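Sanity check

After download, print the first record. It should look like this:
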Amino acid sequence: MFLDFIIQFGSSFITAFGFSILYNIPRKKIIPAGITGAIGWTVYFFLTAYLSTADFLATITASFTIAFVSQILAREFKTPVIIFTLPGLIPLVPGEAAYNMMRAFVEGQTVLGVEYGTVTFLTAGALALGLSINGAVFQLFSSRDLFKRGTKYVP
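Expected structure tokens:
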């Protein structure tokens, strides 16, 4: 069990690390961005493999975790949140489902293509929902005065 987590953490770290380099993230932030992706994927892996959670809920939880860690790192490094969020989300992107959807449509298997398309769009929606929930939570709790309305939220 522990070896599974090490393998999953390491492979997702390499993925997020590679995309951090591809997106020209500053050198000092590449390793934290890779760790963000590794944490998110490990949460997803734990929920799906060991707790048998539905993919949609596991993706929302992992996306929320990535956004939460990104918010903390952004405050620590005094950089925009997107520096850590974008590479962190890459391991969760439903690339296999999108590929299978396109392949099914090309082969004329419309029903299977629609099924894979549904999985793809639900996963993408879960990623967006997790980010949105985290943004709302941080916006609510980051202001010093919760009753001060009309102030601009700046992470």
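If your output differs, re-run the checksum step. Summary of this record's structure: The chain has a mean pLDDT of 91.
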